[in-house]
Design goal:
14 helices, 3-stranded mixed beta sheet, flat, alpha/beta, single chain
Length: 366
Amino acid sequence: MGFKCGIVGLPNVGKSTLFNALTATAAAEASNYPFCTIEPNVGRVGVPDKRLFELAKIATSAKIIPTQLDFVDIAGLVRGASKGEGLGNQFLGHIREVDAIVHVVRCFENQDITHVEGEINPIRDIDIIETELMLADMESLEKRLPALDKKIRTKDPIAIIQQPLMEKALVLLKEGKPARFVECTADEKKELPHLGLITTKPVLYVCNVSEEDAVKGNKFTQLVQKRAEEEGARVTLISAAIESEVASLDSEEEKTEFLQSLGLSETGLARVIREGYTLLNLITFFTIGPKEARAWTVHKGAKAPQAAGEIHTDFERGFICAETISDQDYVSCQGEQGAKAAGKLRLEGKEYVVHDGDVFHFRFNV
């Protein structure tokens, strides 16, 4: 199962610097001019999870494989992007393909780095991007709605759900509100992601701040925090300059020492990755053994056979049961044998809902 977070924002807000640090590569050229990132760059990163290393240590696993997220660096949008300004249509198409939006907002002042709008104003910047995304969604709906009439006449069940949902979304967009705020019935809620609307995607605001504001933020980040609270969005602070410096250091000791000197306990990137994971409503389960300790990803609410299917489709098709130990029990009992002896290993069937941190061994027969 692959999950993609698209990094968006105006030009020169620090998106490519963030992406470079995120993937510890120079795949996206970070320069002080708009549109230096012409094609979207994709970086796959491990999701930080201390539990995996703790479980692996107990099992003396030879290999450790974290679960992963893809981050897509999308070139800077500008006013008029929905009408094709600044290669906008091309980049809007790339945003449609991601699962969640990481919106980088400039919250630092630096006269050496030009701002495309001339001054620092994070709320205006957010509004510019969101307006372009809403306009693109409006155009999409206005083109598609007439075509649904024929399907409605043939009693197409999907069209019967989609038409009123699209109409409600269009009304909301014309009022200047993103489609993710549309009021849905249970059936419509399931169908909403299939409409392909950019503004239905969950949003994480990443405030890019200067080094001195990386711990507590500043007056700009307070404005973004207020905006995020009003929208029910998530927000985190990051200093792209710090992350770039950390990425250039060789050892973990050097990185830890550098962060501690700034009053930080972890990188901002670790927070961005975790927030992206939360944003997508994902949870982690583990498979632990002497050969490898591995973290896997499923949506919250997934059942045991679906989790098994993440490892191999045969596991889901021939699912019998899941030998299950919570990560806390695995640690406190010092491994699988200890958990068995303490009666902490459970056999769970097809209706079992996966809990974050479950350690599984799947039984199947194909």
